[in-house]
Amino acid sequence: MKKIAFVIMTAGLICLIYSGTELMKGRQLQVSALHQAKAMTKEIDSPLKVQEKQVLNKTNKNIIGLLEIPKLEKELPIVEGTTLDDLAKGVGHYKTSSLPGGKDQIVLSGHRDTVFLRFGELKKGDTVTVKLKSGSYQYVIDHMKIVDADDRSIIHSTKPREELVLTTCYPFHYVGNAPKRYIIYAYPKTT
Question: Rounded CA gap, 80 and 94, in Å?
Answer without folding.
Answer: 7
